[in-house]
Design brief:
Blueprint lengths: L9 E2 L35 H12 L8 E3 H21 L7 H14 L1 H7 L5 H8 L4 H13 L6 E8 L2 E11 L8 H4 L4 H17 L4 H21 L3 H4 L8 E3 H7 L5 H8 L7 E3 L3 H13 L2 H16 L5 H16 L7 H12 L1 H12 L2 H24 L5 H13 L1 E5 L17 H17 L21 E3 L4 E5 L14 H18 L20 H19 L2 E3 L2 E2 L6 H24 L10 H11 L3 E3 L1 H10 L5 H6 L6 H6 L20
Parallel strand pairs: 4-6, 7-9
Antiparallel strand pairs: 1-8, 2-12, 3-4, 5-6, 8-9, 10-11
Helix pairs in contact: 2-3, 2-16, 3-16, 5-14, 6-14, 8-9, 8-15, 9-13, 9-14, 16-17, 18-19, 18-21, 18-23, 21-23, 21-24
Length: about 675
């Protein structure tokens, strides 16, 4: 489903998965798995290969993965647990009710390949006919509203989230959208022509699966590409999108209508939210919105029809017959990411149920698998790391006392969420039936949209979670100034319930410090302690910060991820700052912990060495070249290898721990090291 709800959070990694619990952990001390190492490699030359080479050899890529790393291993383990929970409900729907019945019914619908294949594209026939029957631009406008309220975002998108200028209030916000490929450059740059050509073939193929002749499908494909290319030319690039000021354009609806004519914004907003008065909004990317309004006004109706049809088909494709699912995988999986094998149906079905009914599934998950003791230890770790960050901030030499004081206030104000929400969302209004997979997805999308719109009349609920408890990830949200660590991440290799301080501070400690640092990275630092876009820096301090951050930009820009393809230091700057700060801050916290509870060598490694080995283990992975190229273009995170080999040379303590000297592969001159947090 293409519809996206935008939330300004910053996650540890682009992973939407879950993991094994800590409830049944053996009481014996946990240590690093030495089998993960590749001792044939000198850690001074290639620390990533040294720390992770054994893991990489033991976990070769299978056909269903374009990248397989520690996160994915946890996901597989966890998915088996979720499968057990969900299949138990699915096998007993006659005796279930409420959320349990919804979970079981949806899983059964997703697993019923016989019905899905018999139905073909019939679940979307009625909507296709409605699009084909549009007679004028008024019909096109009405259809746009209906699609925005349900399953896709043709032309542009909207969302409701906290107001960057007044973080206590929710704000209606517009955002650029409308293209099927994940970045504007795929349409516009010659080096991406092979992908664009494959996309054209994919679009044509999907139209043919919906009963259109080859010639009809080709014509519609050309119409779709005409519309999407026009929108791509208007879109802001991904680096610019990282600047929150560029996408925050607050105004009244009347002002919007005056500034961006050619589209009936008043009628649109009234139709989207008839029960909520929208007085102000943010127009997102203004140049895009202006161009989009002109495009909508001037576009041929037949072009819009084909474009809407494609939005519908593309959104529904994962929830129709095998022919659609396989065609979708052929392009997005094989061509774009290098996968050779689709995930089995049960995995896809579990993921779908987990995506739609994530909180009810999460409630079951934490009841069965999550350890309350883990939560208490994590809260203690958070406070230790927060204290270490405050001390490092106070001791740095490049900030004024004025800015330090405000920075400490922001640090102290960060809200911490661990494990699972204090209150669970009500899903009683969501109807799940055995009519069709797509019909359920469509009802869910409408339900989710109305839930989002309901926030317009309410202040921001800071208790709300933006990840489910079973997710293996963590996040910082600048507009609520909060960090969150779901239950799913609280296990090895992140957290060792009976592990020593060195490996825990190198794992979950770095994750905690990483998220805290996001509040002070190149984007997060622009928000104050309340979560408002508010410049609390002196001009000189801001200049000093930017100079230090530039060292990371320059360093990562030099990294060649594939022959002729370099990392994007501007796109990944926020995450690279967070990794840099995360390591330095958590290491400082470890030193304080070791003073209280001294620990010597374990398995021949000092506490400092175990800390950095533990960190490197988080990013152990194998990855295909296609995925390297795709992620380098799209992802704000550096590739796993470079979160180790690109980040660690900037950390003085790492160089000392492994006695790395000038001339070694992992060495970086002191003047080139980014010392920020």
């Amino acid at each position: 489903m293409k519809k996206v709800i935008f939330v300004p959070l910053v996650a540890l990694a682009i992973i939407g998965t879950s993991c094994k619990s800590n409830s049944n952990v053996d009481s014996k001390p946990q240590t690093l798995d030495l089998a993960n190492l590749d001792t044939s490699v000198n850690p001074k030359t290639d620390f990533y290969q040294y720390a992770c080479g054994g893991w990489m050899k033991a976990h070769p890529l299978t056909g269903e993965y374009s990248r397989y790393g520690s996160f994915d291993k946890l996901a597989e383990d966890n998915q088996e647990q979720l499968r057990t929970l969900i299949e138990g409900l699915a096998a007993n729907t006659a005796n279930e009710s409420g959320d349990a019945l919804k979970i079981g019914t949806l899983f059964n619908v997703a697993m019923d390949s016989t019905k899905l294949n018999a139905d073909g594209y019939s679940p979307i026939k009625e909507d296709l006919a409605a699009i084909a029957g549009m007679k004028d631009k008024k019909d096109a406008f009405d259809m746009l509203v209906q699609m925005h309220l349900t399953t896709s975002s043709p032309f542009f998108a909207f969302y409701v989230s906290s107001d960057p200028g007044n973080s206590a209030a929710n704000l209606f916000q517009l955002y650029q959208a409308g293209t099927g490929l994940p970045d504007r450059d795929y349409y516009l740059k010659e080096e991406h022509k092979p992908i664009l050509d494959a996309y054209k073939a994919h679009v044509q193929r999907m139209f043919q699966l919906c009963g259109f002749s080859e010639n009809e499908a080709k014509a519609k494909m050309e119409q779709v590409l005409k519309m999407e290319t026009a929108l791509a030319k208007l879109q802001m690039d991904k680096v610019s999108l990282r600047d929150p000021h560029l996408s925050y354009n607050k105004m009244s609806v009347d002002e919007l209508q005056k500034k961006i004519p050619g589209f009936d914004w008043k009628s649109y907003i009234k139709a989207i939210s008839p029960n909520h008065e929208v007085k102000e909004l943010s127009a997102g990317q203004m140049d895009f919105m202006k161009g989009m309004a002109q495009l909508f006004a001037k576009a041929d109706l037949d072009d819009i029809k084909a474009y809407y049809e494609w939005n519908l088909i593309s959104s529904a494709s994962s929830y129709l017959s095998d022919a659609f699912v396989e065609a979708n995988f052929d392009f997005y999986g094989r061509t774009m990411s290098g996968q050779t094998e689709m995930k089995p149906r049960w995995k896809r079905s579990v993921s779908s149920v987990n995506g739609i009914l994530g909180e009810p599934v999460g409630k079951m998950y934490v009841e069965k698998y999550f350890s309350a003791a883990a939560k208490e230890r994590i809260l203690k770790l958070v406070e230790n790391v927060r204290l270490a960050m405050g001390e490092r901030m106070a001791a740095n030499t490049w900030m004024s006392d004025e800015t330090k004081a405000k920075g400490q206030e922001k640090l102290d104000a960060i809200l911490v969420k661990v494990g699972y929400p204090d209150k669970w969302r009500d899903f009683s209004g969501l109807e799940i039936k055995d009519d069709s997979y797509w019909a359920n997805v469509k009802r869910y999308a409408a339900f989710e949209t109305q839930y989002m719109l309901s926030k317009l009349d309410k202040p921001v609920d800071r208790s709300e979670w933006h990840m489910t408890p079973q997710t293996v990830n963590a996040y910082y949200n600048p507009t609520t100034n909060e960090i969150c660590f779901p239950a799913g991440i609280l296990q090895p290799p992140f957290f060792y319930a009976t592990g020593d301080d060195a490996i825990n501070y190198g794992g979950i400690g770095v994750v905690i410090a990483h998220e805290l640092t996001h509040g002070f990275d190149d984007k997060g630092r622009l928000y104050d302690k309340e979560g408002n876009l508010n410049d609390w820096w002196t001009a000189e301090d801001a200049k000093n910060f930017e100079a230090r951050a530039q060292l990371l930009v320059d360093h990562f820009n030099k990294i060649e991820v594939l022959p002729g393809i370099h990392a994007n230091g501007e796109l990944t700057l926020g995450e690279n700052i967070a990794d840099n700060g995360g390591l330095n801050i958590s290491y400082a916290a470890l030193q304080k912990a070791l003073k209280e509870n001294p620990v010597g060598e374990i398995d021949g490694f000092t506490p400092a060495q175990r800390f950095f080995l533990s960190y490197a283990t988080l990013w152990a992975s194998n990855i295909r070249d296609q995925e390297i190229e795709r992620l380098t273009m799209l992802d704000v995170h550096s590739l796993g290898k470079w979160r180790v080999n690109g980040t660690l040379p900037h950390v003085d303590a790492f160089l000392e721990a492994f006695d790395i000297q000038e001339g070694d592969g992992m060495w970086l001159d002191s003047a080139q090291r980014a010392h920020i947090w």
